Amino acid sequence: MMFIVPPPEIVDMPELAIIGLGGEYCLDTRGEIPKLWWLLQTERQPIHQGVRATTYGVFQTVPPGATFSYYDRFFYIAGLAAEPDESERPPFHAVTLKGGRYAVFRFTGSYSEMTQAFDAAILNWLPQSDWQLDDREVVECYPGYKLSEKSLPVFEVWLPVTEKT
């Protein structure tokens, strides 16, 4: 069964600094990424007073500066927005997401469905759209929410795009 994501909203995003834990992965090993999230929960404790902070999964190309390719290796950071005075220190990695135009896919679901939504955006929507990826990072966004909420959270996939020429 094919996972269907609603059409994206094309938005201009500001620059955003992220700090978190990272590792190198590929299509065959991306199933290991949840381990980073578990480590982040231990190291950064993104839950305060019953509210889970917004977290980000950042895909960086290997080597840096290339356009993201679904089938190539990537460096993944599981992180949070950095505090203004926060700097990179081991074991953490820092990245500043460049501002600009993104195709933002939003869907209500579970964490396990994020991979399916990501695949649908990259493999189904992007090739048929009037947009192409540029050399900025691809991002998963897990917006914050109150743990007491009964409804499923809304997740986002951010694709950095420019119009096809």
TrEMBL record:
Superkingdom of source: Bacteria
Residue ranges constituting the AraC effector-binding domain according to the UniProt record: 6-162
Gene3D superfamilies (alphabetical): Regulatory factor, effector binding domain
Matching Pfam families: GyrI-like
Cited InterPro entries: AraC_E-bd, GyrI-like, Reg_factor_effector_dom_sf
SUPFAM superfamilies: Probable bacterial effector-binding domain (SSF55136)
Name listed for the protein in its UniProt record: AraC effector-binding domain-containing protein
